[in-house]
Design a protein that fits this description.
Helix content of chain A: 55-70%
Number of helices of chain A: 7
Largest sheet of chain A: none
Structural class of chain A: mainly alpha
Oligomer: homodimer
Shape of chain A: globular
CATH topology of chain A: 434 Repressor (Amino-terminal Domain)
Radius of gyration of chain A: 14 Å
CATH architecture of chain A: Orthogonal Bundle
Order of helices and strands of chain A: HHHHHHH
DNA sequence: TTACAATATGTCAGTTATGACATATACTGC
DNA sequence: GCAGTATATGTCATAACTGACATATTGTAA
């Protein structure tokens, strides 16, 4: 099974913690995916707290609604870089980001 | 001044903290760069602690010596994703990564 | 139900990151 | 000085990510 497929499955329904055994991911692979999922969730949370639609957030960060949706869905084509930049744009601090990742 | 140039300069000699004012980066931009630099430094530190050459590390993570050098130099063409994956491969935990970023 | 807003999913052309390679520079011991 | 090793820098073809768009699905209020 290729990595893309794995990540795509990983975020669908399978709650963090059981992902690894089910898909036989290495420790590093699952840590990486868990980090991305944590950032995804924080993004949605932050956006909602600010009462923004995906389209509005997209405009603010010069992206598109579809990409925001993919970020929040933990889509494997989304980089950590983009997630981090978006969260910073939403006012998150390095410290909070650090805590989110852990 | 374009972003590439900024980041390239940012890592050369100008110690974190004065970067922002000197290059008039936004708060988010400098936070992003500071995070990358922190990860870069950790990578070099971890690699050296394990007594690995850049070439050896490169082989372990299926990359190249030149890319490892660029990672450690904070080169703007290096993504956070690659830095994170490399650090995970070196045995770093999510928790440590979180602390590094903060 | 219907109508509308929000979100999700698929695709794709343009951009950026990547590994690989060549080559330059720095570092070490002789 | 010289050799040998490690690291740095530049370039390039390929791969991965990106915003944009179309369209589907879900949510929600009347």
């Amino acid at each position: 099974m290729d990595k893309r497929k794995k990540e795509k499955l990983a975020k669908k329904g399978w709650k963090v913690g059981s992902v690894a055994e089910f898909l036989d991911l290495s420790a590093e692979e699952s840590a990486y995916i868990e980090m991305k999922l944590a950032l995804s969730e924080k993004l949605r949370e932050r956006r909602r707290r600010k009462k923004l639609t995906q389209a509005e957030l997209a405009k603010a960060i010069e992206s598109s609604q579809s990409r925001v949706a993919k970020m929040e869905a933990g889509d494997p084509t989304v980089s950590i870089d983009l997630l981090v930049k978006s969260l910073l744009a939403l006012g998150m601090s390095k410290k909070e980001l650090g805590r989110t990742i852990s």
